[in-house]
Specification:
The chain is mainly α. The protein is built from two helices and no strands.
Amino acid sequence: MSIAFAVIVVVVAVVASILTLASRIAEQAPLAAAGLEQVRNNTSTIPAVEVVNTTSLAILSACQKARAALGG
């Protein structure tokens, strides 16, 4: 009988710990979601960097060709 009581006490303690941690996670989840949204907003323009680089290189190449054509 005392073994059963000890097992029940341990199970209750483990469940209480799990519920406490779940409560903490639930409190912090909105903050994490807001942070992820901010990261998404800040990094959404990163694919445009490749377009800017390609366009800049094309402009540079055209300028070099124009300079060469003008004898520079």
